[in-house]
Amino acid sequence: MYIVLLSGGSGRRLWPLSNDLCSKQYIKLMNHDGSAGGTEEKCSMLQRVYGQLKTAGLAENTIVCASSAQVELIESQLDNATEVAVEPMRRDTFPAVMLSCAYLLSKKGASPDDVVAFLPVDPYTTGAFFQCITRLGEYIRTAEQTIGLLGGVPTYPSTKYGYIVPKRQGNSGGAAASVAAGGVASGGKTAAAAGDLLEVAGFREKPDEAAAGELVAEGALWNCGVFCFRLSMASRWLAPYGVRCDYDTMVAEYEKLPKKSFDYEVLEHWKPIVAIRYDDMWKDLGTWNTLTEEMPENSIGDVTWDGTCENSHAINVLGIPMVVMGAKDMVIAASHDGILVADKHQSSYIKDCLAGLEDTSRYEERRWGTIKTIDNDDDDGIKSVTRRIKVIAGREMPCHIHERHTETITVLSGMGKLRIEGTGVDLLAGSTVSIAAGKEHSLQAIGSDLRLIEVSIGDAGADEIVK
Fold first, then answer.
1. How far apart are CA 12 and CA 457, in angstroms?
2. Which of 164, 257, 306, 358 could form a disulfide with 325 if both were Cys (CB 3.0 to 4.6 A apart)?
3. CB of 114 within 8 A of CB of 1?
4. Which residues pair with 390 in a beta bridge?
5. d(Cα 165, Cα 171) in Å, to the nearest integer?
6. b vs e for 73-87, b when ≥16 Cβ sit within 10 Å of the residue's Cβ?
7. CB neighbours of 181 closer than 8 A, spacing ≥ 6?
8. DSSP letters for 325-393
9. Which of the 8 DSSP states describes residue 191?
10. d(CA 401, CA 440)
11. For the purposes of burial, counting CB atoms within 10 Å of the CB of 381, is it exposed (0-12), middle (13-18) or buried (19 or more)?
């Protein structure tokens, strides 16, 4: 079975730490899953779920589907352990799923009869979740033209999640009922044990509280965003759009595919669909409210609390002190991109407040290191940008050219090699070198991490050409 992690969203719901270049799934605020060997170092949602896949023995055949802007970040965080199916543009989950299928068939040597399971990268869950996915894949391998889902057993009538509605006794009678023998109780309500398969009657998307209560009473399951099918089925879903299930062809014709979710394009209309019950911890960590519920500490970074704060969390990555007094049910987050001070419940609606705010990133993680913008100024028509740059030991920044600005680098620590127009320059702590506009150059760290300050003079906006 193949696994695809869908990781292409923009993810601004954890602003100011998340942005278009560093979506919420890449922010390192999580603890590693204990079953994965554990470490004190914080990890991202992507790193955590990939570690869980590794523990479950599913990582070898896992790929990630994401936009081109996120490839370097993914490769850096997963240390090039998996391949990335790159979306040429963002067009929702149906095109992303089809592109991933094409990648597996064209680039990974998968067979049309092979099974693929798609997962979001932001579930907070346990190893049992991945065992259920393995069981689901085993069933789909034997089923014809069937889609399999994973449904979480609700712990309360949530209005934040979508629901999978199983068929009742008397009108199910399909393959799933025979697999989950004894899984349907009398009186028309489902009573399958965890791990049983149920036939799916339909879906309800984020109901109100009263409707959610009725759904839970009727045995409906939370939709965990996992779906599984045979790769051969993708060609049938692509046929109406005249696109072949070939990766290079699909990249060139990606705009032909509708900008729709896989749920609306396929799941809402498909039969048969089965769901496997997962009865253990599961949470979508998509907002500050839900994320802070799983943080073992109430602050990260330089934060001082007074004795009157209650049920509040603060994240400070600025490197300057933060003092919090009298906060109740609050989340405070400070980064170089901005500062958030919000009631925890209200923080779920942050995207509405960001609609008129420019999406800029002052912190970037690349496969070779990191870039942190610490000053961006336009004084009397003279534009300047100051950045702190780290090149990881043994890594090299790609060869590139800046067309409209010059830059001066000053080495803070480490050793490295600067190549300008093919000529090598040794770098030591204290070295200062100026690079004129139009000069091809690259940086390499030798022996240890190379840390430097870069000051750009001129128009530094989108003028970089990577060679």
1. 30
2. 306
3. yes
4. 370, 451
5. 13
6. bbbbbbeeebebbbb
7. none
8. -S-BSEEEEEETTEEEEEETTGGGGHHHHHTTS----SEEE-SSEEEEEEEEEEETTEEEEEEEEEE-T
9. -
10. 5
11. exposed
The secondary structure of 94-144 as a DSSP string is: HHHHHHHHHHHHHHS---TTSEEEEEES-EEE-HHHHHHHHHHHHHHHHSS
Interval 241-278: pLDDT, tens: 999 999 999 999 999 999 999 999 999 999 999 999 99
CB 19, CB 12: distance < 8 Å: yes
| Closest by Cα among 330, 354, 334, 327 to 343 | 330
For residue 252, what are the contacts with CB-CB under 8 A and spacing of at least 6? none
3 state DSSP class of 240: helix
**Burial call 330-352: b when 16+ CB within 10 Å, e when fewer:** bbbbbbbbeebebebeebbebee
Radius of gyration of the chain (CA): 25
Element (H, E) at 200: strand 197-204
pLDDT in tens, 200-240: 999 998 888 899 899 999 899 999 999 999 999 999 999 99
Residue 237 DSSP label: H
Instruction: Give Cβ neighbours of residue 303 (< 8 Å, ≥ 6 apart).
Output: 314, 316, 322, 323, 324
Decide if 324 contacts 314 (C-beta within 8 A).
Answer: yes
Q: Say what the pTM is.
A: 0.80
Q: Tokens 């990249």 label which residue?
A: 251
DSSP per residue, 3-57: EEEE-----GGGTTT--SSS-GGG---BPPPGGGT--SS-B-HHHHHHHHHHHTT
Give the pair of three-digit tokens for residue 185.
């109780």
Residue 113 and residue 148: Cα distance in Å, rounded? 15
b/e 93-128 (16+ beta carbons within 10 angstroms → b)? bbbbbbbbbbbbbbeeebeeebbbbbbbbbbbbbeb
